[in-house]
Amino acid sequence: MNKEVILEKLKEILYPNFKRDIVDFGFVKDIKIQDKAVEIFIEIPSNNADVIEKIKSEIKAKLGDSTQVNIKTPQIKEEEKKIKNIAPNIKHFIMISSGKGGVGKSTTSVNLAIALAQSGKSVGLLDADIYGPNIPRMLGLNLQKPMVDESIMKLIPLKAYGIKVMSMGMMYEEGQSLIWRGPMIMRAIEQMLTDVLWGELDILVIDMPPGTGDAQLTLAQSVPITAGISVTTPQVVALDDSARSLDMFKKLNIPIAGIVENMSGFVCPSCNSNHDIFGKDTTTKLAKEYDTNVLAQIPIEGKIRQGGDSGKPIVFFEPTSIGAKEYIQAAYKVNEFLENIGEVTNADIQPTKH
């Protein structure tokens, strides 16, 4: 066998708990062949003995027992340890992102967070959408301000429907514009992680600004993001932007939990039937391209809009509605993803520099 043949065989070996292979991840560093002896040099970001043994056994099964497999697990640098400790009491961070605005990202963040809390998890919701902080209104908190624990000088998050909530929208008056440059946004997001008394959380859902800019990169470099979720609508023009969001996850080495498709048909209030007015099954194709799945297909349903405007989320107040059932199913899939994710997060695999 030559190196090319060996490399093709190694592409068949998926990294444990992921859908990407060890070659695609860039873990295969060198292949040496001398006579009939093959030596593979691999560098992985985990010192989990089960992960190492599984990779070794799969390589030997593909190339033969005589293959020598050397696996290195680099030590995490001191600065990387600091990154992991910025919010040590939070087990999982979920980044909710979209390639463009107006696709229902904040509505998804609110209802998914509540559904996760209803599944028994301790959940926080951070509204990091600096320019459009709509979550306080969606939870009926737009007239409330967080208190300060003066003994440690940290903000106490507000509570609603079983989740802890913090938003930049709680820091200034309604309707006030924020004209901030990148560094100010980056600092604000870091403060909302470090200067808020989140306590022990299983999951922190983070509603990001639309796009793929400073805020996303700052967050990915500040905390170990366990999962990324892309929110889109079925139109092809929206999917073009969603592809950029998914590509961002890959470049930042954020595991993709899936895609939420909003405006997935229109639910007729009189006949309760669903009409596909923006396209059908377009998101499924995009999910396949990025080795992920569609978490939910949320229809245009009057109750969703009414719940958002009145501060009464559909998952909490209309749990038997079509939209609520989709959010609840998405929460189930996210919980399953988090259980299977293993120890590898983007804190272990550092973001690609661009």
Structure description:
With 354 residues, this protein is of the alpha/beta class. Helix content is 36%, strand content 21%. It has helices at 3-10, 49-63, 78-84, 105-118, 135-138, 182-194, 214-222, 236-251, 282-289, 302-310, 314-317, 322-340, and strands spanning 28-34, 37-43, 68-72, 90-97, 123-127, 147-149, 154-156, 158-160, 163-167, 201-207, 225-232, 256-261, 266-267, 274-275, 294-297. Strands 8-9-5-10-4-11-12-15 form an 8-stranded mixed beta sheet, with helices on both faces. Strands 1-2-3 form a 3-stranded mixed beta sheet, covered by helices on one side. Strands 6-7 form a two-stranded antiparallel ribbon. A hairpin with a 2-residue loop joins strand 1 and strand 2. Helix 4 crosses helix 12 and helix 6 runs parallel beside helix 7. Residues 76-83 and 343-354 have low confidence and may be disordered.
